[in-house]
């Protein structure tokens, strides 16, 4: 009996390994227009998390571009979202394995500088998404930078608030999520000029829907004046929407979500979310490769590139979903 | 003469109090309730109490069977992964396979059972260390979910009545998950204390060789407990699926340690052999009260984790003191 | 007065609600071996803990005087610094460290944090030779048997050149040859002026090695005799505080039909791969009979019982017949179903569940027989357990008391009770009275006799020669994997010399 189970487990392991290897070779065949001639360009994308509604799109855009360009592309990401240490290590590994192109969410020269600088000087093409380290470390960056995102969130809130008195909670992943902290700083700074809007502060949901829902419910018990929440975390946004939905406060509570997964769009349709801010992650993945190609071919690109973010409100949901091929309920 | 008698009575009352397994968790809980109540009396508002219970119900649905597992000498880090699996599989059943509510729930529980059986095979049959095995299973299951969902929530369940489980309230007062948690807790308590199976579980954890020599089918008992934990974890995922009306691939992420902590705070021995369901329940409530109360006391978010950690440490100290008082060994 | 190396004066130790020691006085001369005897719970261990510094000064009343000057130990280290070394009954060995490291743990030779391995192994070799242990100092301790480990822990203490050596039941795990070695070592230490406290149940040993014997009872010093001037019977009476009429109440009655027959039993060696510890043996057991199994430690006696009971199955070959019909016993469950009970030797390891109560421990082997299919009917359970507790005279506050809190003898009784609840027809018993006090021993023998009268058959493995000889109706001796002798009591063959001769294979 023991032996049988052992055999079954071993077979399962072999099968899964074979399956992984298989899918890898599939993609290389598909991209292999130029197999055999010169060495293929090796490109690595260091993402912030594995899978997920938004980073999954960046991954898809990246692979699409690699296939088009005949590059050997690989998307890697830490098992724990936003794990900076692992992101540094993944970048180092890629460079040590001869990556010609490196793309990642690099936001701080202190953290990533030591790894990026020597590689950049040696001629590796480096691009960053959604943030930048600086021109001495990289060729360019593309995306919505944290400051810009914070401002967009603030502007959206101002528009939704109108003249009413608003106290807003900023729901983010963890206290240590640096990009989100930067967003929050820009968000607060922008709102200083608006007397009717009070920023209550940051709250952390650890990417757990339940924690977010309970946090917001508890906060409102003590501070009944809280009537708005801006989310920088996707799971947190679902939790907040769930709170609004369950308590039937669609009309009295302003909620600004993030990203454009189907469940968020559904919540916008039902009124639990007032709107969501979607960034074009596909473009970040796809465009960054294309721009590096331009550089390789001797062309020029700007250092700052805004991939743009869209504020999706109830009236835009259907057209947006149709455009992106997202099915709604 | 009379006073002497009184004194003896008092001592015995104190020793009875300290002899209870649940004291280690009850004492900090009561102290915390008093402090929070003094700072903010809204804490005791009915709706807030219901919120606390609701928050504990999700953890307790897993903590109750986990208590049995830990009493039998096991541990499980893969509970959070099973929760996510249950959540996603249930959503598949509704959104992709359109098989209706109950078959979807059963499918999710079956998925949990598969994880549990695999875990049991590795831990019990091959006698591999549970810590690493369940950590490995967590990774495998999480990765399976990522591969199959691309990390995108499974939405459009298209079934309004399914929401009742996670969002609805019984008699318009308390959430169904609370009722379910109570039912599960009471059944687990009876299972542990009143049945032959429960006695076998305790014997397995207390001394495996003795249990075997006493004619208990140790392997079967441990298999059942291991599978039970994963099934209930998957059920917790079903509740989350219903609450958020979608299959979240990260449902329950990071809760495995807090759930295990609440079981241990509740007086269950990490070595196995002893523990109570009531203790685990109080452990879950304690953690929920901390989360809820600190916000109500307007403790700054940055400080909350420190207080959380301190209370964990203190409650284990009380537990140690209690054990020394009552003269029980480990 | 300073011819006393050690004096303990009016030592009293209180625990909440209990006085463990009351005005105990003890005097030890230079180069003397003082035996300390008493029932379990007489206060021997507590006294030793006071002396070893486990209870720091201030935890007890009274004083300890070394070489005429009072000392106050702050802890075990302090006592060791004063030259007091303990050899405990439980051997604290690091199983995966080498023999040499175990011998010199805490005092490894070398300087500046580096270990001088050459010196370590050389020193270890000298010690091993003294103990007549033919071991490589570099091998790990794990494969050693408990006798060898016990000698190692003795040598560990000896290596520190103590002024006073304290031994707590040192011979429980030893074979007779090893006991001889132990005695030689103690004797040579005595001539070198080392003093020794020797705690033992075995009066024979006290007579063999000690100069004087101190009797403790209920935490009090009863008497101190020059061993040459006192009768065994007197010591026993002082220890139990009552006359022990007959320790071995064996009454004669006839035997019935054969109930158990074992054929072709082979059991693999627990430590050596590919070798059998017992090779193709067989025996039979009649109704109401006590079959004793003698032999040296390591002859495979316990392993044979385990194999019959289904505890070990890997590599075991056996044919078992109950009432003449062949049965298949693949697990303890099967054995219990066929009415067999098994009281294991290492009760602390395999017999009891520390944290559970008496009630739960007792009913754990009887779950299928308790009334009710799935649920346990607590009322009925309590009644059955209470019956056993009264019958076996188990001393405990209540049946809810956890086993940790009971004395060794009472724990052993709980195990017995657990199997008796099942009303077994055949009882396998492994070293039933190892390490328990005289009073409880007598209870045990009485119970066993009563059981056989009721028709229960018993297979008893015992290293306690008087017990084996006087309780068994028939004695099998195992040596070298075979049965080397079958001795019948009714034919007057069961003598100490006959058993010993067969055991050492002569």
Short description:
The complex is a heterotrimer of chains A (329), B (330) and C (506). By secondary structure, chain A is α/β, with parallel strands linked by helices. Helices cover 50% and strands 19% of the residues of chain A.
What does this protein structure show overall?
The complex is a heterotrimer of chains A (329), B (330) and C (506). Chain A has eleven helices and twelve strands. Chain A is an alpha/beta fold and 329 residues long. In chain A, strands 2-1-3-4-5-11 form a six-stranded parallel sheet, with helices on both faces. In chain A, α8 links the parallel β8 (226-231) and β9. In chain A, α1 (2-31) packs across α2. The model of chain A is unreliable at 22-37 (pLDDT under 50). With 330 residues, chain B is mainly alpha-helical. Chain B has one domain (22-322): Orthogonal Bundle (ABC transporter involved in vitamin B12 uptake, BtuC). Chain B is 75% helix and 1% strand. Chain B has a two-stranded antiparallel sheet with strand order 1-2. Among the domains of chain C are: 4-93 and 141-240, P-loop containing nucleotide triphosphate hydrolases (Rossmann fold), CATH 3.40.50.300; 256-339 and 427-432 and 458-506, Rossmann fold, CATH 3.40.50.300. Helix content of chain C is 32%, strand content 25%. In chain C, the strands form four sheets. Chain C has a six-stranded mixed sheet, sandwiched between helices. Chain C has a six-stranded mixed sheet with strand order 16-17-18-13-19-20, sandwiched between helices. A four-stranded antiparallel sheet of chain C has the order 2-1-4-5, covered by helices on one side. Chains in contact: A-B, B-C. Chain B: It is found in: Cell membrane. Chain B: InterPro entries: ABC_transp_permease (IPR001851). Chain B: GO terms for molecular function: transmembrane transporter activity. Chain B: Keywords: Cell membrane, Membrane, Transmembrane, Transmembrane helix.
Beta fraction of chain B: under 5%
What would you report as the Rg of chain B, rounded to the nearest angstrom? 21 Å
**Poorly predicted spans of chain C:** none
CATH fold name of the domain at 4-93 and 141-240 in chain C, please? Rossmann fold
Cα(first) to Cα(last) distance of chain C is 52 Å
- pLDDT average of chain C, as an integer? 84
What percent of residues of chain C adopt helix (DSSP H or I)? 25-40%
Keywords (chain B): Cell membrane, Membrane, Transmembrane, Transmembrane helix
Main location (chain B): membrane
Transmembrane segments (chain B): 52-70, 77-95, 101-124, 131-153, 173-192, 223-245, 303-321
GO molecular function, one term (chain B): transmembrane transporter activity
């Amino acid at each position: 009996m023991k032996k049988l189970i052992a055999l079954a487990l071993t077979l399962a392991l072999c099968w899964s390994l074979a399956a992984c290897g298989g899918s890898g070779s599939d993609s290389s065949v598909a991209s292999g227009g130029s197999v055999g001639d010169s060495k293929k360009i090796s490109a690595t994308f260091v993402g912030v998390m594995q899978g997920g509604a938004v980073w999954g799109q960046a991954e898809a855009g990246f692979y699409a571009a690699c296939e088009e360009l005949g590059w050997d592309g690989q998307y890697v990401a830490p098992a724990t979202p936003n794990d900076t240490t692992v992101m540094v290590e993944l970048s180092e590994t890629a460079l040590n394995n001869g990556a010609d192109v490196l793309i990642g969410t690099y936001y701080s020269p202190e953290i990533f500088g030591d790894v990026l600088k020597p590689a950049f000087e040696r001629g590796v093409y480096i691009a960053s998404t959604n943030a930048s380290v600086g021109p001495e470390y990289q060729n360019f960056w593309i995306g919505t930078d944290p400051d810009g995102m914070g401002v967009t969130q603030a502007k959206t809130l101002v528009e939704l608030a109108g003249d009413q008195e608003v106290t807003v909670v900023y729901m983010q992943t963890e206290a240590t999520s640096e990009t989100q902290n930067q967003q929050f700083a820009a968000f607060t700074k922008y709102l200083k000029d608006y007397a009717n809007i009070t920023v209550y502060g940051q709250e952390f949901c650890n990417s757990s829907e339940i924690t977010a829902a309970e946090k917001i419910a508890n906060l409102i018990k003590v501070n009944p004046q809280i009537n708005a929440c801006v989310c920088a975390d996707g799971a947190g946004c679902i939790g907040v929407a769930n709170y609004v939905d369950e308590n039937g406060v669609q009309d009295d509570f302003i909620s600004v979500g993030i990203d454009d997964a189907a469940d968020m769009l559904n919540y916008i349709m039902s009124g639990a979310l007032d709107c969501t801010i979607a960034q074009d992650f596909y473009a970040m993945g796809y465009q960054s490769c294309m721009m590096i190609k331009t550089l390789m071919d001797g062309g020029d690109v700007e250092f700052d590139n805004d991939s743009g973010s869209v504020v999706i409100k109830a009236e835009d949901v259907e057209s947006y979903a149709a455009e992106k091929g997202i099915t709604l309920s | 003469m009379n006073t002497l008698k009184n004194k003896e009575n008092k001592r015995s009352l104190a020793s009875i109090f300290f002899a209870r397994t649940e004291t280690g968790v009850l004492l900090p809980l009561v102290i915390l309730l008093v402090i929070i109540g003094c700072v903010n009396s809204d804490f005791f508002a009915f709706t807030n109490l219901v919120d606390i219970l609701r928050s504990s119900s999700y953890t307790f649905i897993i903590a109750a069977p986990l208590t049995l597992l830990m009493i039998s000498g096991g541990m499980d880090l893969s509970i959070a992964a099973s929760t996510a699996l249950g959540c996603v599989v249930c959503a598949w059943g509704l959104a992709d396979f359109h098989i209706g509510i109950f078959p979807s729930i059963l499918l999710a529980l079956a998925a949990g059972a598969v994880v549990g059986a695999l875990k049991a095979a590795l831990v019990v049959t091959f006698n591999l260390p549970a810590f690493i095995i369940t950590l490995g299973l967590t990774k495998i299951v999480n990765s399976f979910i990522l591969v199959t969902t691309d990390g995108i929530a499974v939405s459009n369940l298209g079934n309004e009545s399914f929401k009742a489980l996670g969002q609805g309230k019984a008699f318009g007062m308390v959430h169904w998950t609370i009722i379910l948690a109570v039912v599960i807790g009471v059944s687990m308590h009876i299972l542990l204390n009143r049945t032959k199976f429960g006695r076998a579980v305790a014997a397995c954890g207390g001394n495996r060789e003795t249990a075997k020599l006493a004619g208990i089918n140790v392997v079967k008992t441990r298999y059942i407990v291991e599978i039970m934990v994963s099934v209930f974890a998957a059920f917790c995922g079903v509740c989350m699926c219903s609450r958020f009306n979608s299959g979240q691939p990260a449902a329950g992420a990071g809760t495995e340690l807090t759930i295990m902590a609440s079981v241990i705070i509740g007086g269950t021995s990490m070595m196995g052999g002893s523990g109570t369901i009531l203790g685990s329940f109080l452990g879950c409530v304690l953690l929920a009260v901390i989360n809820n109360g600190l916000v109500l006391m307007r403790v700054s978010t940055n400080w909350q984790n420190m207080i959380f950690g301190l209370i964990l440490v203190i409650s284990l100290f009380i537990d140690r003191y209690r054990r020394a008082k009552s003269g029980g060994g480990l | 007065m300073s011819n006393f190396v050690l004096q303990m004066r009016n030592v009293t130790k209180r625990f909440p609600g209990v006085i463990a020691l009351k005005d105990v006085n003890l005097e030890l001369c230079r180069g003397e071996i003082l035996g300390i005897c008493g029932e379990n719970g007489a206060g021997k261990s507590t006294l030793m803990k006071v002396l070893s510094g486990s209870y720091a000064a201030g935890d007890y009343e009274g004083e300890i005087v070394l070489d005429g000057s009072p000392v106050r130990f702050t802890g075990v280290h302090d006592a060791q610094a004063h030259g007091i070394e303990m050899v405990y009954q439980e051997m604290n060995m690091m199983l995966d460290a080498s023999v040499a490291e175990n011998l010199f743990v805490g005092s490894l030779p070398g300087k500046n944090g580096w270990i001088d391995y050459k010196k370590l192994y050389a020193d270890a070799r000298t010690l091993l030779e003294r103990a007549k242990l033919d071991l490589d100092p570099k091998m790990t301790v794990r494969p050693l048997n408990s006798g060898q480990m016990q000698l190692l822990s003795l040598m560990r203490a000896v290596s520190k050149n103590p002024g006073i050596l304290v031994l707590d039941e040192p011979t429980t795990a030893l074979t007779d040859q090893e006991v001889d070695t132990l005695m030689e070592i103690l004797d040579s230490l005595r001539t070198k002026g080392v003093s020794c406290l020797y705690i033992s149940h075995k009066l024979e040993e006290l007579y063999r090695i000690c100069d004087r014997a101190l009797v403790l009872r209920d935490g009090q010093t009863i008497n101190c005799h020059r061993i040459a001037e006192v009768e065994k019977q007197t010591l026993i009476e002082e220890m139990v505080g009552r006359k022990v009429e007959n320790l071995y109440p064996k009454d004669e009655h006839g035997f019935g039909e054969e109930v158990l027959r074992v054929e072709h039993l082979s059991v693999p060696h627990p430590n050596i791969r590919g070798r059998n510890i017992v090779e193709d043996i067989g025996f039979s057991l009649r109704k109401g009979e006590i079959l004793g199994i003698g032999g040296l430690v390591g002859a495979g006696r316990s392993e044979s019982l385990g194999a019959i009971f289904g505890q070990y199955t890997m590599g075991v070959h056996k044919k078992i017949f109950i009432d003449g019909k062949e049965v298949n016993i693949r697990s303890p469950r099967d054995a219990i179903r066929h009415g067999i009970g098994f009281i294991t030797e290492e009760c602390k390891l395999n017999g009891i569940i520390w944290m559970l109560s008496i009630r739960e421990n007792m009913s754990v082997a009887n779950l299928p027989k308790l009334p009710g299919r799935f649920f346990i009917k607590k009322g009925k359970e309590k009644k059955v357990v209470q019956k056993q507790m009264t019958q076996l005279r188990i001393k405990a506050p209540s049946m809810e008391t956890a086993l940790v809190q009971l004395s060794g003898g009472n724990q052993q009784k709980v195990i017995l009770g657990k199997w008796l609840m099942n009303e077994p027809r055949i009882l396998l018993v492994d070293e039933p009275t190892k390490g328990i006090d005289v009073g409880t021993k007598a209870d045990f023998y009485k119970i066993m006799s009563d059981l056989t009268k009721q028709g229960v058959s018993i297979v008893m493995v015992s290293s306690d020669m008087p017990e084996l000889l006087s309780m068994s109706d028939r004695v099998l001796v195992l040596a070298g994997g075979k049965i080397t002798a079958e001795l019948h009591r009714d034919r007057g063959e069961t003598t100490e010399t006959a058993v010993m001769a067969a055991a050492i294979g002569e």
